[in-house]
């Protein structure tokens, strides 16, 4: 039993008990909750302060003030939204803009293709991932020759250089000249990583060039659709190809 209840019982007064709120009405907010005097008061004062601030702002406002959102906004289903201006362009202007877009995309695609050719000329596609490995077939007469076959002796090179597909000199060449290029394992590993990075860059550029080609085709298709010629869609547009339309034949004068 609370202290207030005991004090009221001793004085002979009937203690005040607030009615419990039904569970079905808890969703109605602060005014329906049990023992929320402080919450109700804080909420009331907060709303009064907000109203006074809005009234002061309205009184200080210039009645002749104008800004464009006054005429470019409207209420839709109780939500304040800004009207979107309509594009005032003619079909000829739209065609010209599409033509400029095609020229820009085509210019970027040609620049990307030139970079691809430059990378290919530098790499020569040596040890490229995904490339089918070359096969070097040796023909022998007997099984004994197969068992005794030594690829380093047959190629007249050192066993350490057998695994190379390029820069694999013969023993006679090594006796006359020194081996050029990196020979240490750490240096070879670093060069292999750099070569792999270059191949990854080449792959990205090839994919980018293909994507630009598809974009140019899609822009051209949208430009062709501006003509008022009867057309039938033959194939839907995909991520890798534009939509295909069949246009009615029209003789040009």
Strand order of the largest sheet: 1-2
Query: Based on DSSP secondary structure assignment, what is the total number of beta strands?
Result: 4
Mean pLDDT: 78
Shape: flat
Low-pLDDT windows of residues: none
Strand share of the residues?
5-15%
Question: Mind summarizing the main beta sheet?
Answer: 2 strands, antiparallel
> What portion of residues is helical?
40-55%
Question: What order do the SSEs take from the amino end to the carboxyl end, as H and E?
Answer: HHHEEHHHHHEE
Number of helices: 8
- End-to-end distance, in Å? 104 Å
The helix-and-strand class reads mainly alpha
Radius of gyration: 41 Å
Notes on the protein architecture:
49% of the residues lie in helices and 7% in strands. The protein is mostly helical. It has a domain at 91-247. Helix 4 (91-123) runs antiparallel to helix 8 (185-224). The protein starts with a helix and ends in a 6-residue tail after the last strand. This is Probable U3 small nucleolar RNA-associated protein 11.
């Amino acid at each position: 039993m609370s202290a207030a209840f005991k004090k009221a019982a001793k004085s002979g007064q009937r203690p005040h008990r607030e009615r419990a709120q039904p569970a079905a009405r808890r969703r109605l907010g602060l005014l329906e909750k049990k023992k929320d005097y402080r919450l109700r008061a804080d909420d009331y004062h907060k709303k009064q302060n907000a109203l006074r601030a809005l009234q002061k702002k309205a009184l200080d406002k210039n009645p002749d003030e104008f800004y464009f959102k006054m005429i470019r906004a409207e209420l839709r289903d109780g939500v304040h939204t800004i009207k979107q201006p309509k594009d005032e362009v003619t079909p000829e202007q739209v065609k010209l803009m599409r033509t400029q877009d095609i020229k820009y995309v085509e210019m970027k695609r040609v620049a990307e293709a030139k970079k691809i050719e430059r990378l290919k000329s530098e790499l020569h596609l040596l040890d490229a991932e995904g490339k089918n490995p070359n096969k070097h077939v040796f023909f022998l007469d007997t099984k004994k020759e197969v068992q005794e076959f030594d690829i380093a002796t047959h190629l007249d090179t050192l066993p350490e250089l057998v695994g190379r597909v390029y820069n694999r000199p013969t023993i006679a060449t090594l006796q006359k000249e020194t081996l050029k290029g990196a020979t240490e394992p750490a240096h070879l590993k670093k060069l292999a990583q750099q070569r792999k990075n270059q191949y990854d860059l080449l792959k990205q550029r090839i994919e980018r060039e293909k994507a630009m080609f598809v974009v140019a085709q899609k822009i051209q298709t949208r430009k062709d659709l501006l003509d008022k010629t009867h057309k039938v869609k033959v194939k839907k547009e995909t991520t890798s190809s534009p939509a295909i339309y069949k246009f009615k034949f029209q003789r040009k004068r």
